[in-house]
Design brief:
The complex is a heterodimer of chains A (245) and B (427). Helices cover 17% and strands 18% of the residues of chain A. Chain A is an alpha+beta fold and 245 residues long. Chain A has one domain: Alpha-Beta Plaits (2-Layer Sandwich), CATH 3.30.70.20. The longest helix of chain A has 10 residues. Chain A is built from 7 helices and 11 strands. Chain A is globular, with a radius of gyration of 18 Å. Chain B has 427 residues and is mostly helical. Chain B folds into 2 domains: 59 residues; 328 residues, Formate dehydrogenase/DMSO reductase fold, CATH 1.20.1630.10. Chain B has 16 helices and no strands. The longest helix of chain B is centred in the middle third of the chain and has 34 residues. Chain B is globular, with a radius of gyration of 22 Å. Classes of the chains: A alpha+beta (245), B mainly alpha (427). Chains A and B meet through strand 2, helix 2, helix 3 and strand 6 of A and helix 6 and helix 7 of B.
Chain lengths: 245, 427
């Protein structure tokens, strides 16, 4: 069985945040919720400063702290490597959120349907949309996935539950790449079977030295980075994306 | 007139105007707290000051969790006193056994409420925790050992310990007779019955002591096993939770015992010796806890990893310094008061009550410092520094819980003697 993972080429990333945008549309994430987050970093002292970018999806850890602490098994590890959240079972205790060292979890603080950026039902939208399926009406987000047949796709499914990056399980199960990978204009994100030495991400890992984030935490992430360095304690974030509800 | 002749002990069943006024006031505040919760249920937790850790720069666990930990800590009192009486043969503490047990039961009920306040889906919480419980989660122990096991054991102990007095009270005719008969459940205080009953309480006390350690440790593990939050991952976390639980529990028990001595009874039934014992026990636990605090502080500032030191820096000279140092001051002042009392060898209930209140305030401060800074200032990736300020909803929920707890205790004191009526010989 394929065991999926992602390789992110930091040499290629231009920090355009297009992946964040496509993720929001594909997964219908409400306001303030970024399943994919792109850091823009500044390093060094003026005039020798350098700007770097680092996309941060969920790491889909093999030894995931969030899976360990979930009291009801709503957060679980799938055989194909994905860490999934069953939004039908989640009780909203947010233990996964405090346990995660990467800060990838998002909670539905209010009624999600009241917290979207754009009202598709507003006057004049329908002719412009020309019959496109709006994100909130995407039928693939409400289906059950995996041999477990659990509801794990899409954001904003219920008030008071946690969700996070699913690696776009609704696309991956239909042999497609996640939305962020599709949408990256410079192919900085590469997705595939890390167990297959011939897959695109595996070949990239063979070519370039790589690292994983917070390796010392022992979480064994399935997201690898090539072509750059991990952030240090000297790294400062600039231009943080606004995340408010 | 006939009723006055057979009046129940310790003011049970006799309701004064003053009692009604205070009960109504407490009920109003408790209902206000539930109104806060209703806002949370209808609009979502957006009405709280909580937000996501990371990009949103918030704390996802706030004062609801702080008070879960605090109330479970206070519940320490009942088991300790019961165990001391039964196992260490400390018969001097007998007069406060029942109020200690009642305090344990009430504070566990409050902790259960605080957990519900913290859940995004409280109803699912109740159902799914039974359907899908995972023992691997540190939360499992909080729900099973602490809220269920501890609560049931304390209720059984309270019940067994009260049967003798229930039988005594059931002799008096009145509106509450049915209740006391129900509690006594056929108990008639024959020597054989008394012996069997004492044996049961003894074994229950033995069974409860390991619960005392494991339950409070489990709550420490909720934090101490998390490598992703600087300031939490520490082997000291679980034992420190046990100790601080003892400090806040005994402190609260002193306050309640003093209130009972003031309102319900007098010195003859609640002698100075009880307070001397409580004061000494609190002093020893407080000394041990302060030692833990120094060890923790020294480890983190001397050799802590960068992020650990950042969080510790926030405590001693950053955003949280005022809470940290006022908690430390409250602990040190209480210790001073307890030592003064110890040296003077008098009961000095006034000093003890001051110390009891101070250590509880400091315990709340310390619980806050455990829960919040590691979330807002402890992200391992370079997110912006977060912030957290509770909203009125969270404040009113917590104040409502205190009022509800006080209401439960005052109601209990009117239904059943808060102190033993017939002093037992066995122990």
């Amino acid at each position: 069985m394929a065991r999926y993972g992602m390789v992110i080429d930091l040499d290629r990333c231009t920090g355009c945040r297009g992946c964040m945008e496509s993720c929001k549309i594909e997964n219908n994430t409400p306001q303030g919720s970024y399943w994919m987050y792109v850091f823009r970093f500044e390093e060094g002292e003026f005039p020798a400063t350098q700007v770097r970018f680092m996309p941060r999806p969920c790491m889909h850890c093999d030894n995931a702290p969030c899976v360990k602490v979930c009291p009801v098994g709503a957060r679980y590890k799938r055989d194909d490597g994905l860490v999934a959240t069953d939004w039908e079972r989640c009780i909203g205790c947010r233990y996964c959120e405090v346990a995660c060292p990467y800060g990838v979890n998002t909670f539905n603080w209010g009624h999600p349907e009241e917290h979207y950026y754009f009202d598709w039902n507003a006057e004049g939208v329908a002719p412009e949309a020309r019959g496109a399926v709006p994100p909130w009406d995407n039928p693939s987000l409400d289906e059950a996935y995996g041999p477990e047949e659990r509801h794990i796709a899409g954001a904003g499914q219920a008030k008071g539950v946690v969700d996070k990056c699913t690696f776009c399980v609704q696309l991956v199960e239909n042999d497609s790449d996640p939305a962020c990978v599709h949408n990256c204009p410079v192919r900085a994100l590469v997705f595939g079977d890390l167990d297959d030495p011939g897959s695109a991400p595996s070949r990239l890992l063979q070519q370039k030295p790589s690292f994983r984030l917070l390796e010392e935490a022992g979480t064994e992430p399935r997201v690898h980075y090539v072509g750059g360095n991990p952030p240090t304690t000297e790294t400062r974030q600039i231009e943080a994306a606004t995340a408010e509800v | 007139m006939a009723q006055r002749a057979t009046r129940l002990p310790y003011g049970v069943g006799s309701i004064s105007a003053r009692w009604i006024v205070s009960a109504v006031l407490l009920a109003v505040v408790a209902i206000a707290g539930w109104y806060g919760w209703s806002r949370e249920i209808s609009q979502g937790m957006i009405v709280t000051g909580l937000r996501n850790i990371g990009p949103m720069g918030g704390a996802t666990w706030g004062i609801d969790v702080v008070f879960v930990v605090y109330f479970v800590g206070v519940s320490f009192a009942g088991i300790t006193v019961a165990a001391l009486i039964r196992l260490a043969k400390l018969t001097a503490l007998k007069p406060i056994a029942r109020m200690a047990e009642a305090l344990t039961v009430v504070s566990l009920v409050l902790a259960a409420f605080a957990i519900m306040y913290d859940l995004g889906q409280p109803l699912r919480g109740i159902v799914n925790l039974f359907r899908y419980a995972r023992p691997q989660s540190p939360f499992f122990g909080t729900f099973t050992l602490v809220i269920s096991g501890y609560l049931i054991a304390s209720l059984v102990y309270l019940y067994l310990d009260g049967r003798r007095d229930a039988a005594e009270c059931a002799k008096a005719p009145g509106r509450l007779q049915w209740f006391h008969r129900l509690w006594a459940a056929g108990y008639r205080d024959t020597p054989a019955e008394r012996e069997r009953h004492d044996r049961a309480s003894f074994w229950l006390a033995i069974a409860i002591v390991p619960l005392l350690i494991t339950a409070h440790s489990t709550l420490g593990f909720v934090f101490g096993l998390q490598v992703g939050r600087p300031g939490w991952y520490s082997a000291l976390q679980a034992p420190a939770f046990v100790l601080l639980a003892g400090v806040s529990g005994l402190g609260m028990l002193i306050v309640i015992a003093a209130v009972v001595r003031r309102t319900v009874t007098d010195r003859s039934h609640l002698p100075d010796e009880v307070f001397r014992w409580l004061g000494n026990a609190l002093m020893i636990l407080l000394l041990a806890y302060l030692y833990f605090m120094v060890v923790e502080l020294l480890t983190n500032i001397y050799t802590g990893a960068e992020r650990e030191r950042d969080v510790t820096g926030q405590l001693i000279s950053g955003d949280f310094a005022w809470i940290y140092w006022s908690s430390v001051a409250a602990f040190v002042v209480s210790l001073g008061l307890l030592i003064v009392r110890f040296v003077r060898k008098s009961a000095a209930v006034g000093l003890l009550v001051t110390a009891g209140v101070l250590v509880n305030l400091a315990a709340i401060g310390k619980r806050y410092l455990t829960v919040i800074p590691s979330q807002t200032h402890g992200t391992l990736l370079p997110y912006e520094t977060g912030s957290y300020a509770p909203t009125w909803v969270e404040y009113i929920e917590v104040i409502g819980l205190f009022a509800f707890g006080a209401l439960l205790l005052t109601l209990f004191a009117k239904l059943f003697p808060i102190m033993p009526v017939k002093d037992g010989d066995a122990a």
